[in-house]
Design goal:
Chain lengths: 338, 290
């Protein structure tokens, strides 16, 4: 008599057990813990920063702090936070990705970028060129990238945060050369991208492609280029600094919605503020990010080439506007390939 | 007396249900099957469909019918079909060699077949791109004769052949093992030519398994992202596969666009799989009639 129901009954029981099993794992109740969700090239920087901050926090409060870090493509990381990854702080490649978190989750105020000094960017970088040893194609500036026969390597601006800075830097160069002439800018950027034989999905992918021997010039973050040349001892490549580039501002922000719930607001805030201290700024500089603190910048001046830079806001307004115009469906980037 | 009718019905029920089985537990195993399929396969897929229901038909069409999306669909299906076909032919040969002949290092070779399963796809993509790019070993000689290996459609096919290779070999091996060589000998004794033996005796038995292998390799190829993005060059309209297009949409926080493309991809894949399954059932029936 029981039998006819058992299939269904046991199925239900089994599902219930599964749900219990999944939800029942005790959340490890260790000491204070925060999660920093960041983008790819900052891994080594934050390893140093975390170690220093954990020491400092312990001296000041006596608490044991654990800082976990997560790295990946900037957009992918932002999407993880949107769909529930509990990040106490986010340190991403573009403001646009943090804007997306703010507008889709409400965990951050809309004006998050005004909450910390320097536009919430404790360190900056810029876009430079990496060329083959001896610069056989004689690449000096952006205009040399548009010449037919030069192969340019850059990731796809649609999938890579770094590549968006590349694209906007090229666009800005043209707009400075011929103010107000958007048509010329579009043709110029088109010409550059028609010289791109491979559009990798991320910055590290492009670097690999270039080091494999494809292309004449790689558009790269300055910190990545300096790392490749100085640290990895890449003798077969050298850096070329263009006459003008963009001030790339990778921002940091406190995810209040998460920290309030987890009771980590105080420590997460102190963590971000630590980046602005002299000690934090020196670490940024050692990892080839341009520091904001003028004293530290002075000490590391020899490391960073002098380059004239424009900011995103003076050339394009906000990220929202820049994205809408250039990188949305049917934007200027899509039109290059039509 | 009043109870007896109910009792009789129950007895009949029980009698029908309690046909003795060697291994009991239909209820439990069926329960596990349903929960497992539901949780692992159907639940995530149904989310996709519920989400795409919120999009108007016009919007849906506009997103799918764009030139770039269509180009990506053609590329993804085209390259996957080519790669799965190549794998079916070569996989048959490899499986044949591994089953029928004994030679030194056979166990090693047999283990090597599974490597594409174990290797992280990104590693596969990067290694293949290194070899087939115009500075790599094979790419250099290919470009000598005017063929571009990596960063072209050929590159995509190469990556898909690599990751889909084990499927055909592993589905054909057990069938080949069961196949008695005496059948071929009998055919030969009865005067069949070698071609006749292959086409009339071997192929009908192997065909269903080969089709399964083809379908698995095809399905894997359609969904493959990790290795392809490193070797394809990802040029819009030329070497942009559908999974990359979906990633691109996600990167713009365009969840609707991603869902629409994913749903269409899923429908096409499902139709394709269904067709292959029917073909397989048909070939099996045909063999049994014989």
């Amino acid at each position: 008599m029981r039998k006819p129901m058992t299939g269904c009954g046991k199925a239900l029981l089994f599902s219930a057990c599964l749900v219990l099993l999944v939800s029942g794992f005790p959340s490890a109740a260790v000491s204070l813990e925060i999660l920093n969700v960041s983008y790819d090239p900052t891994r080594e920087l934050y390893q140093d920063v975390n170690a220093a901050f954990i020491r400092k926090w312990n001296e000041e409060t006596g608490q044991d702090l654990v800082i976990r870090q997560s790295h990946g493509g900037s957009g992918t990381q932002a999407r993880s936070v949107i769909s529930g990854l509990e990040a106490d702080v986010v340190t991403l490649a573009l403001g646009f990705d943090i804007d997306a978190i703010a507008s889709r989750t409400g965990f951050l105020p809309r004006d998050w970028q005004t909450r910390l000094p320097n536009n919430s960017c404790p360190y900056t970088s810029t876009i430079v060129f990496l060329v083959r040893k001896g610069n056989p194609k004689g690449i000096r500036d952006w205009k040399d990238l548009a010449v037919p026969g030069v192969e340019v390597i850059t990731p796809n601006p649609k999938t890579s945060g770094g590549a968006r800075w590349n694209y906007l830097a090229a666009w800005g160069y043209s707009m400075k050369a011929r103010p107000g002439d958007e048509d010329a800018a579009r043709k110029f950027v088109s010409a550059i991208f028609h010289n791109v034989p491979v559009l990798d999905t991320g910055a590290r992918g492009s670097t690999n492609t270039f080091l494999r021997g494809i292309g004449d010039v790689l558009l790269a973050w300055e910190n990545e280029a300096l790392l490749a040349v100085n640290r990895l001892g890449r003798k077969e490549v050298e850096i070329v600094v263009p006459s003008l580039s963009i001030l790339a501002e990778p921002p940091v922000a406190l995810v209040e919605g998460v920290t309030r719930k987890r009771g980590t607001t105080e420590v997460a805030k102190a963590y971000l503020e630590f980046l602005y201290t002299e000690e934090g700024q020196e670490m940024c500089a050692r990892h080839f990010y341009r520091p904001r603190n003028s004293a530290v910048a002075g000490r590391f001046a020899g490391q960073f080439p002098k380059v004239e830079m424009f900011t995103l806001s003076e050339m394009f307004g906000s990220w929202e506007e820049a994205h809408q115009k250039h990188f949305s469906d049917g934007g200027t980037f899509d039109r290059i390939y039509q | 007396m009043r109870k007896s009718r109910i009792e009789k019905t129950l007895a009949r029920w029980a009698g029908r249900r309690r046909r003795p089985r060697v291994i009991p537990g239909f209820g439990l195993t069926m329960g596990i099957t349903m929960s497992y399929l539901g949780l692992i396969v159907l639940l995530p897929l149904s989310v996709l469909f519920f989400k795409s229901l919120g999009i108007s038909a016009q919007e849906f069409l506009r997103m799918v019918a764009s030139e770039r999306t269509l180009a990506a669909f053609k590329l993804s299906f085209g390259t996957s079909i080519i790669a799965a076909s190549v794998n079916t032919l070569c996989g048959l040969v490899v499986a044949w060699v591994l089953v029928r002949y004994d030679f030194f290092g056979k166990a090693f070779l047999d283990a090597v077949v599974d490597l594409p399963f174990a290797l992280p796809t990104a590693v596969a993509g990067i290694s293949l791109a290194t070899i087939y790019s115009r500075t790599g070993w094979i790419g250099k000689s290919l470009s000598g004769v005017g063929i571009q290996g990596a960063y072209s459609r050929l590159g995509i096919v190469i990556a898909l052949i690599f990751i889909g290779f084990p499927f055909v070999v592993r589905t054909l091996q057990p069938v080949l093992k069961d196949l008695d060589p005496q059948m071929e000998e009998a055919a030969a004794c009865l005067g069949a030519t070698r071609a006749q033996t292959f086409f009339k005796v071997l192929l009908p038995v192997l065909l269903p398994a080969a089709l399964t292998g083809f379908a698995l390799a095809l399905a894997r190829g359609l969904g493959e992202y990790g290795s392809v993005v490193f070797i394809s060059g990802n040029m819009p309209m030329k070497t942009e596969i559908v999974p990359l297009l979906i990633m691109t949409k996600l990167e713009e926080y365009n969840y609707e666009g991603a869902i629409v493309i994913a749903a269409v991809m899923l429908i096409f894949s499902f139709i394709l799989m269904l067709a292959i399954n029917l073909l397989q059932a048909w070939s099996r029936r045909k063999m049994e009639v014989r």
